[in-house]
Write a structure and sequence with these properties.
Layout lengths: L11 E7 L2 E7 L1 H6 L11 H5 L8 H9 L10 H7 L7 H4 L1 H11 L11 H25 L3 H17 L7
Antiparallel strand pairs: 1-2
């Protein structure tokens, strides 16, 4: 995050409640010292010190930001996640959910991971499905004494089985 005043890296996060409204300030160490926010005494006069305020922050956003400091399960921090690009434990997915959701569009097509299926396995499954359907049709044709249709279906099954020999696991 960048400082609201000078756009340097923010290290001080200050929340002010005025007339029942929350205002969030993100500042670098230097700007926070200039405004007296790092001093305990200065915190009592927050409105006088900050002057103009940044845009209003929604309460759910504020709560999400406060909850994203570190993972209580493994101690992993948001900064750790940003540096290494990996999470420390399953709980981190909840703790850093806002950061993750912000990154997903650039990492994936869509917001849902649908998994990966190796090409050879996909072909094998498609052939098995087709063969199962043809076997059902063949049994039906034999039962109904449509032997010419059954012969055509049998030949289709034979061709598929020959062509499928190069597929993984066949």
């Amino acid at each position: 995050m960048k400082c609201d005043s000078c756009q340097e890296k923010a290290t001080v996060f200050y929340t002010q409640v005025t007339d029942g409204k929350l205002k969030k300030f993100v500042l670098c160490e230097s700007c926070a010292q200039k405004k007296g926010i790092t001093s305990v005494d200065g915190l009592l006069m927050g409105g006088d010190l900050l002057g103009s305020s940044p845009p209003q922050t929604q309460i759910p956003d504020l709560i999400a930001d406060l909850n994203q400091e570190d993972c209580s399960a493994c101690g992993f921090t948001l900064e750790d996640f940003r540096k290494v690009g990996r999470l420390g434990c399953p709980e981190c997915y909840q703790v850093f959910s806002r950061e993750i959701m912000g990154r997903l569009p650039s990492m994936h097509k869509g917001g849902v991971h649908k998994g990966y299926l190796p090409e050879g396995l996909a072909k094998k499954q498609a052939l098995e499905s087709e063969l199962a359907g043809l076997a059902t049709k063949l049994a039906s044709a034999i039962e109904e004494e449509r032997f010419e249709d059954a012969a055509i279906i049998r030949d289709e099954i034979s061709e598929i089985e020959k062509s499928g020999k190069g597929v993984v696991g066949s």
